DNA sequence: CTTAGCACTCCCCTAATAAGAGTGCTAATT
DNA sequence: AATTAGCACTCTTATTAGGGGAGTGCTAAG
């Protein structure tokens, strides 16, 4: 779509104005606020052309224009200038990640908190997945005669724990012995490697304690499983009520009902391009109830391996430049924190 | 307030009808649905009296009547019949608690999930607090040269963990030695006992590793602190949109803004009577923005010690009987689970 | 004491009207 | 040939007015 300079300027003005005001944009307001050096009548002619091209549309005969989904797409791809967070905002974001603890729940919580402070959109957070992390230590802590806590530590400093049931009549020594064997055989391996290949090997050494081992492997697998199922965490639901499109309850309900479907959210986040910040606009999301929304997302990684995604969901009228800056920056520091290259 | 039988019947009819319909109740609808054997005119006379007593009120001259805050109070205290959950509902609730793991995050999550499934109100959950739990084991797991995971297990099977920074140049032996000393001295004591009395004692034994000990005690105290600050967890925010009073966005915003203030929620839950299910109606909450809401709450305990509260927040027009049954039942099984008397 | 009957009040829905914003077209201007 | 001033036209939104209806309060009769 080859647009001459002025058409581009008009489209840009319409998108940016509508992002701010959430109202249809009139020719006169463009002439006033963006000095294009032409009269409203000229702008009206350009608008008429842009509408014919499908880049903008008119809510009704005598209203201003609103960007269409292709219009936003054109804007994001060709007109929008990339922005960065202010150094103050970057400081806020870094401060929230300053904790060293890499317990899943903590990291998720601070990430969501950070991102909700930086935007008024709904935050979608997937992962992090342990799949590619190498095991460092497995520890067991007896709790009761028939329960023990299994703690798993990865090379990347990731800590997960879970309570397991033990078969009755298990000596304390047994547990310790198992722990030793597991540590010897599994150290340095990733979880898929553990569960797929070496398992039989270890079973031989531990025939006596097979039942316990089974339980512990169940835990390891459960942890993996959780990550394959990839729970999606949500945040900022209050925030999004600040957006003017959610002034009637029907819109809120519609939003709520569709974000309750985790499967959909997962599918949406999975469409994120691992190599750059991804923007999905309206129908591009490919899911009817989400037609009025957009998602800006970016992956984060541990030591180069993608482990999760941060997404921002908002109305199509999103501040794309800002949303992109936020997810880019937060996935960046999250990757650093998780990879252990923290710069604090 | 001595009400004759018929006045009580009329009040009961008004409250129960309004709880169901959310609309003002007319004399005629009472005569039709509740067979009191009198005409609407007679009921109107009674209503007039009830209004004079302040138990019901009229939104406007030609509307039916709506219960007032004292009216709900009278109903809850004197008219309402206590109900129980159906056995099917009880099964649902128990199933969700069937997991053995007593990791804080898990218990909180299943509790909230359970209660949101049983009601359409907002769920407030405080605690559980470790304050009164006796220590069973402290374990340390080295992660990196300068970080370790500290795991604390209580006699009640409670597990908490946190990552601590270590001073540089600490030998692995040191950590193990500290662990031993701590376990020897602290086993069986509650956290307040630990931090208040014995501390100096242990310090003598561990002069060499004082720095590490300081760090570990910081963690113990942080855990206590967290519980003194008593985080309030929320659930069911979507649920409450089902209530007809929240069909306009202003009501939703009002609700949202006041539940964002954790201090208030904490104060409200703290007013729960530890010996029975507590109902706070409208202005009884003693907080202006909450004047239109009610809270039904009940505490739960570990081995007889109160450790937390479950509350349901909804419009004044709440189904009190049901809400009371829900919090009573869930705090009951929660106490059992936490005290280790699980009956599964 | 109860109740039928009726006037009265107030809400809520609908239709009608006015005001306003913005366009599209035409004709004049550069 | 492109731009623009001017104006008629359209559609929305806000306001007002009126009718219908629900429900009460009062009065007088049972």
Number of strands of chain A: 10
User: What's the CATH C level of the largest domain in chain A?
Assistant: Alpha Beta
Q: Biggest interface and its residues per chain?
A: A-B, 33 and 33 residues
CATH topology of the largest domain in chain A: Beta-Lactamase
Annotated CATH homologous superfamily of the largest domain in chain A: GAF domain
Low-confidence stretches of chain A: none
Main β-sheet, spatial strand arrangement of chain A: 7-3-10-9-8
Q: Which CATH architecture of the largest domain in chain A would you pick?
A: 2-Layer Sandwich
**What's the number of helices of chain A?**
12
Structural class label of chain A: alpha+beta
* First-to-last CA distance of chain A: 46 Å
Spatial shape of chain A: elongated
How many strands, what sense, and barrel or not for the largest sheet of chain A?
5 strands, antiparallel
What does this structure look like?
- 2 copies of one chain form a homodimer.
- Chain A has 344 residues and is an alpha+beta fold.
- Chain A has 3 domains: 5-79, Winged helix-like DNA-binding domain superfamily/Winged helix DNA-binding domain (Arc Repressor Mutant, subunit A, Orthogonal Bundle), CATH 1.10.10.10; 87-129 and 230-339, GAF domain (Beta-Lactamase, 2-Layer Sandwich); 135-229, 2-Layer Sandwich (Enolase-like, domain 1).
- Chain A is 47% helix and 18% strand.
- Chain A is built from 12 helices and 10 strands.
- In chain A, strands 7-3-10-9-8 form a 5-stranded antiparallel sheet.
- In chain A, helix 1 crosses helix 3 and helix 2 (27-33) crosses helix 3.
- The longest helix of chain A is centred in the middle third of the chain and has 20 residues, at 210-229.
- Chain A binds a DNA duplex (30 and 30 nucleotides) through helix 3.
